[in-house]
Amino acid sequence: MNQVAIAGGTTRFREPFGRRPDAKSGPGRSAAWLAHLTGGQGVGGSNPPAPTTFVRVASPARRDLKVCHRRPASAYISLVESMTMTDGAKDPRLVLAALASTRPKLELGSLDLIFLSALHLSANGAALAAFDEAQLLNVFEQVSALLEPHAESPRRRATHAIARLREQKLLARVDGAGLMRAGEYALTRLAAAIVESLVEDETLTRENLSVLTRSLRLSLAEILTRSAEAHTPEAWHTAVEAPLRVSVSDLVSGIERRQRSLDLEQQAFQVQIAELLQSDWFGAVDRCLALLESTSATLAELNEILLRDASELSSVLQDIQDVAIEAGATGAESAVQRVSEQVERISAWGAARQRAWSEYYQYVHRYLCDVVRLDPSRALIARLREQLSRHVTRPFALAVAAAPSPRLLREVEPFRDHKPKVSRPRAERERPPAANDGPDPNAVLEGLVLRALAGGSTGLCDVTRQVSADVADELQFVTAGRVAQVVARLAHTTHDRDRPWLSVNADLAIEEWRLVEAQRRG
Amino acid sequence: MADTRFITLGDVVADEQFPDVDLALRRGRHVDREDLAWYGFLSDAQPLLEGFYRRFGCELIHLVDGYFYLLPTTDRLGRRHLSVPEMLVGQALTLLYLDPATLQHGGVVKRSAALGHLAAVMGSDSLTHVFNPKRKRVDERVAEETVRAKFSEALRRLAALGFVSLLDDDTLRLRAGLLRFAEPVRGRGSPAEALERMVARGELVLGDGSDDAENEEPELEPSSLEPEPIDQEPVLQRLEPLLDGGGAESADLDEFADFGETLTGHEERES
User: Fold this and answer.
1) CB proximity A387 to B under 8 Å
2) Band of residue B116 on the pLDDT scale cut at 50, 70, 90
3) Where does A110-199 sit in CATH, by number?
4) Spatial separation of the C-alpha atoms in residues A130 and A123, rounded to whole Å
5) Of the candidates A281, A385, A401, which has its C-beta nearest B95's C-beta?
6) What CA–CA distance (Å, rounded) separates A328 from B203?
7) Structural domain boundaries of chain A?
């Protein structure tokens, strides 16, 4: 049975009454719709309150996706993540097609990004839930003075910047007062995510990974305890499903987010090592080795924690799932499944990254030892380049072994073909002539034709019928041809335009020749 | 030899790695540390295998760069010299291997980048001419297509020899064996002297190696079962005039005398 509820942070929602969320004309609940992106759930506007978010708890048997209205990119990103994480039955191509149909885009310059960052930091520092217009202008002027100190008309540029951010759903008006008073604005979830990725250090460390996994274990243990006491669907939803979907899932997502940050950090390390060698060559060896060692140690520690804690988390999740299955709580079961998949993913991440880093580590280590240490003056590249450029005029060729492959004899079984073979007959087609003392068959045939003609036959069909009366069936056709030959020689035929086909017997019909003179020629 | 797991040659031959490693070495494969099991086997068995292969007229070479290969000193086992495209592509890949920028991707480069690097060093016209040596008038598009085809073919052969690993249609991983292409310019002395020593050891021949009958179509596949004509004249005998300071090869070596000044500050790299 489908349910409808209001909740924040979900990705399945639609505007009430089919109105587009970004519609420009007419009154509506855009502010309220946008507000929930910032974390304010169910914010009411000037119009009568109505749900801005609809959640349909899909039953396992029916998990089809309703294509939604146009929505900001953040919602779609969350939707795609949600789909790929939870609903294996959903086809990501459908989600991407829906996303493509909306053609989302972000166009942010340095000024916009720093403005957003300044708003985010100001809100955190002063514990502001929203900014009024004066505060927005003030922050923008500070940013503008920092970035473009000589720019003119800061207020006008602030107006344009705020308009740009609102158009791209990065800044939302949250007061809903309309024309009644100046508005209040807050950063959307998308803006917060962008700023956090820019300014906040969320790299996975031993400390924060330990804290996160410990919190996860505690949360799951508490959920397991509550699940044993839940006896109604409402209790299951409140005690198990909701905590799993919100708090536990957020904790796991936090680990994943930090993993992605660590991936970026490793990429930066790789770039840094290459740049160090480019700039300092031999002098950079020790720093490169130090970077390699520190990153390897970090990865090893993280992987160790993940391996140890992931098994414990999976065990508790399995216990919760067993209880949910026994109680028939499908919603809780699917929530457990989702968290389990996330835990498996973060566990697999550790092994994969350690393996990849190990390959990179070995390669760089070999490079430092074999190339850099043995060529401290870095002359080898230049000399090799010169050798290559002159190779055409002064060629040489390296020798390599090229032994032919050994002959490996094997037992060969004769090919057994059960199909009938197509072959020529071995016997001679032409039989040698043999003496035959019997009557000449042609003379006999001619005699029979003459007798028929003399008997008054007026047509070829009649003659043929008489001659072939005693002939075997398989010779009827040949006999008819020979009779026609003899008749043509011995009698005259008329030249009718249309010669009828007449039956000689049941199996043979011939073209009728009407005979004019049934007598021998000459 | 006390620290190895092999006491006698019989132990080496009885090892399950031996047939694969032996066949690979005889086909010109360069075995480096990425071939973890093979490299470990060869490291352990090296003292025993050196004598073993010497009886076949080959030297089992192990360079400090971390790779093994079999160097034929006679033609008893069969050998070939790399073709011009293989040499050019090999040197271009070596340049990429030495480039610190390649480190960022762990030695993985794109084919297009390798071809672009080769064209940048040699010049596009020169490269096109080298890869289309028998054509006097050639359509530009056809010539470029030929360059790409020969480049791909050279890559495939270099991969069979263990110089690179082809990861997919577009990327390849550079391997330590490529440093063999840089050997003539790694020594302390001039490249001409290094070449002279390498020619004397049978590591390379001057010229494009076109005299090598196998060079046109080296067949490393098992289907190549036809016996190759064996030149019974040992390489070292052919090199005697050169070592004595006479012969045509000496004149060839003179051409290498004017580039590559003496390196200082690092050790001689000859093994």
Assistant:
1) yes
2) very high
3) 1.10.10.10
4) 8
5) A385
6) 75
7) 16-102, 110-199, 206-384, 441-517
